[in-house]
Known about the structure:
Blueprint: H1 6-9, H2 44-47, H3 63-83, E1 107-111, E2 117-122, H4 125-128, H5 135-147, E3 156-161, H6 165-173, E4 178-183, E5 208-210, H7 215-226
Parallel strand pairs: 3-4, 4-5
Antiparallel strand pairs: 1-2, 1-3
The structure holds zinc ion.
Zinc ion is lined by residues 134, 136, 163-164, 166-167.
Amino acid sequence: MRSESSASDGPALPGGGSPLAGAAEPADATDPALETVRPGQPTPGAVRRVGPGAHEGLAEPGGAGRRQRHELWMRRALEIAVTGPEPGAGHAAPSAGGTPADDVPVGAVVYGPDGTEIAVGRNERELTGDPTAHAEVLALRRAAGRLGRWRLDGCTLVVTLEPCTMCAGALVLARVSTVVFGAWEPKTGAAGSLWDVLRDRRLNHRPEVHGGILEAENAAILRAFFR
Ligand SMILES: [Zn+2]
């Protein structure tokens, strides 16, 4: 099931040991998996490349079940986008004068290899006055803090909007194995719209990417905010 992504992601996870167990990991430059990817070969991510409106996943064996899981996870990200992290859950942010209602409603959730929710984030740029306080970055930071390591391989980040260049870069740096996003963002998207940072074969890590999940619902929430 994960064979297409194993070239850049390291060991396949199903049935194997959990990467959360803290097994020794090879240094990036010496990762033996990288040697299997040569120029001219399709990248693991490119195989799954989909454009806006494509019904990705449905044609492959097991794809329907995976899509169901992605939709379930996306509903949780939508909930975070709309309501924000639960108060008192350790997510309180210092206020810079804004309120959660001022922020574009984007929500992100990091799931572990076994599907456990590890951390969530909601866009808090206005709330905190922090230009980097995007939902993905906050969720990644919290997940890394909770796991006690920066490397989030085996994890899936689910976000309601196509990641920007900053967040796509952060997702690559965090070695996230899978990125699932909702609405396409033609103006700033870096997961296939304007750039494709996540599947740039010049980078040494390329997550599996699934875009357009619950696209209509995600787009509707954003439209309602900007109206
Ligand atoms: Zn971003």
